[in-house]
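Course assignment 3, question 2. Fill in each field.
Student: A.L.
Task: Predict the tertiary structure for the chain below.
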Amino acid sequence: MFNLDFTLITLFILGITILLYIRNIDLSKQIKNEREAEKNKQSFLATLVHDLKTPTNAQINTLRLLKNGTFGQLTTEQYHMIELTHDSCRYMSDLIGTIMETYNCDYGNINLQKSEFDISELIIELCESVKTLAMYNHQQIKFSMNQSCYIYADKLQIKRVLQNLLSNAITYGFKHTIIEINLRTNKNSIEIAVQNISKHIPKNELSVIFNKFKKTGYSNFNKAGTGLGLYLSKQIINLHNGKIYAKSLEDGRCIFGFRIPTSTKTKLLAN
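Answer field:
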């Protein structure tokens, strides 16, 4: 009886060992396949971004030369059409950048390159860059900050966030309305809010509007339907140890903004 029990226990342990060995082989194959798939995805994405970005940049540069009159004087109608096309190409370039930056952010490949810069000046530049789009929608952009505000942050990434929020406010705001950009500072943080008049967003949609690829009744709002613009903005603000938020009021005001902490290198200078 003892020998039989010992044999059964030995066979049981041997069976478990074989099953674990087979499972380990399957897991190793799965990990290898996933790594290979990830490598192929990285290669495909890099190729895709390059193939899209190169001709888009060429188009932007060509249209800039046409606007500047390098190849001859344009009529008012010609200039207007080229300006709209120029804006569309820049939008495509921003979209390509959003896709690439989202991928880099997900895989921890974004290292903030912080420097001191005037955030007020950056906002004014962005307002100028989207002026044509706002005019096309019969909208006005109002930014009333009358002081220079120097912050210590990654200028390129903060620009990407502001550009996304401002472009969305213009695109999905009602025509013949005013888009307001408010900049507030205090001892510990700086806050920027972009407000437009648009369709009311229910609370349940606001709670997930910054999620990746999330589609809501308002989230066609997310960068040409990719569902990445707001997601990427949130990741960038998180990297700055800040907080991004969205509010939709019953009176039609829709506010997207963010707060980031100040540092010892942040200062407010009056003009």
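Instructor remarks: Strands lie at 114-118, 140-143, 148-154, 178-185, 189-197, 243-248, 253-261, 267-269. The radius of gyration is 26 Å.
Grade: pending
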